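Lecture 7 notes: from sequence to structure.
We start with the chain below.
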Amino acid sequence: MTKIYKDRHRPTEERVEHLLGLMTLEEKAGQLIQTFGWQAYEHIDGKISLTESFKEQVKNGGIGSLYGTLRADPWTGVTLETGLSPREGAEAVNEIQRYAIENSRLGIPILIGEECSHGHMAIGATVFPVPLSLGSTWNVELYREMCRAVALETRSQGGAVTYSPVLDVVRDPRWGRTEECFGEDPYLIGEMAVASVEGLQGDSLDRDDTVAATLKHFVGYGSSEGGRNAGPVHMGMRELLEVDMLPFRKAVEAGAKSIMPAYNEIDGVPCTTNRELLDDVLRGEWGFDGMVITDCGAIDMLAAGHDVAEDGMDAAIQAITAGIDMEMSGEMFGKYLVEAVRQGKLDMEVVDTAVRRVLTLKFKLGLFERPYADPERAAEVIGSDKHKELARRIAGEGIVLLKNEDGILPLSKTAGKVAVIGPNADVGYNQLGDYTSPQPKDKVVTVLDGIRSKLAGQPERVLYAPGCRIKGDSREGFEYALSCAEQADTIIMVVGGSSARDFGEGTIDLRTGASKVTENSWSDMDCGEGIDRISLQLSGVQLELVQEVHKLGKPVIVVYINGRPIAEPWIEDHAHAVVEAWYPGQEGGHAVADVLFGDVNPSGRLTISIPKHVGQLPVYYNGKRSRGKRYLEEDAQPRYPFGYGLSYTEFAYSNLRVEPAVISEDEEAVVSVTVTNAGQLAGAEVVQMYVSDVASKVTRPAKELKGFAKLQLAPGESREVSFKVGREQLEYIGLDHKPVVEPGQFKIYVGKHVNDGESVDLRVREEE
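Predicted structure tokens for the same chain:
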């Protein structure tokens, strides 16, 4: 007789309860543990074998999940040489699943969880631009398409859940994880969040091209004290609900099946044990029915960091009681859960509740019916040409043109020599961002590669010199860089930052640009997780290099490759053009060249304000009206405001109107505007709508983004854009911490960025 839990025709709830009733305490605890997947196998001489430690864990109660089985980076110690190809990755997961199913008493498959912030973090997978660039596209449908591609690549190797999207609202860009976020605005992040969930999870989780999305980091992680990673967050519940929690709520409503609490504390309570957030709000008010998994080491921090637990057992009990279902790393749950129940310190029902959620997700993912991957399919779809083309298109749409003096861009393909200079001109890994695996050199297109490709057949027109490193004070490359610049008609300075973790692969010769291997490798990493800064200036001697080149009196175009805003007033004042490319991914070099030479008209718009000086922080656009006007030395306005970005054409706005002009709190108005391409080139405009509540019972931002649309227009073409304005756009969190739409006057602004455009008046009438 077929066991009920193995009968796919039975309801999921019935299967879960049957399986739960068969499990021992050790087996239940095992399902709540996630260990490191790269430690489950060895890859030697092309052969994959399972480790004895993994086999032992399977026999002693099992493992609920494996983290980063296919991940490769310095932390895992997995390199290009020792890592798994797309086919081998699928084969390794199959070996792991087969052993777990065939050598455990109940044959429960393992949940394979992978990092996929901007592409599956596995060797051979497509590396898309970082989320800060993805947000800058303002193209929700394009991002949804990317998420489908990421889900396909991940599931084809057996990965069933991803630890993305990152929905943190950035408040201080000194924070090293700024690059992992979409920006500073909760509405925009919320739109991207919904697209992510829909793209990753599709119509059903039990398919071979979908994965479960894990929302992170819940919550307030982007608002840490001083921009320091995992620092305390000083925020009241009203702001939490209205700003930081909004994208998470939207993603939960879209059906997200997993969520990860943040490392930080809020008002003295660590998110890992915050029952008000995890139980009352997330599960109670929002109705979230998925799994909650910690970040790595988060439970350890309760006893050694936050110091709210006496020891590891206390920390584990607090976490699972607060609503944690699974522990990434598995250390605390693995050591203490069983003993806590046996000592009567932890109720078995608390454990059962967590196990139910884990098993429910596994059943919904179809792992009991189809636990194995298809190596042939993995080899076919991972890193495909289709996905490569998609990566190039997204990178191009995420590039923001900040300055274009006298229309110096686009450049001519037929005249003049170009000197490509700077530490990010030809170092591929520097343009990939954090959370990427090592890549073979021929897979990543650098800016130098892209420009050479654009001028194919004219190699004499392109000169190159690195000039300096990202960090350090060596100027030994200046002389060679200046000699190249002297021979050129136009100079492209490719500078910025790096989130490249040290793979020990050597460095470059600053005098020639050639690769060289040294005894002690050099790390240029100045951004990424755990790399927080006190400055937003260029690291090292990069600014000095740009200044020396500028003295030659030739046109200088600065291209930033970086993971956080750069505040360099001298460059903004003296460069002829400034292009912000963020970390544009593996096809970033082609995308930058497409923009520089006019094959792509830049349409990226900032999703994060760029200050004039770090001393202005915080400078996010939607701060309160009461935050003041200026400092002694400078006003409080950013150098480039939220939503800003230039184009090679011009767009004109006209006929702004709202109908009707008076509504009730439950009615909707329609705001319409006509947008015209008034220039000579086809281009895309991002039309942005902001709402301002003229007077309210609690203080409000001067403006809030509540709608946007990206439209492509031919020269001379006009199109009407309309936005609905109703409860969702007008409400805020009131005095009772509940959403409210107050009667009164609102101003609706429509324009090119937050400081642009005209407004129309909308009134919400009082109900009789």
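Points to note: DSSP finds 22 helices and 30 strands in the chain. The domain at 399-607 is CATH 3.40.50.1700 (Rossmann fold).
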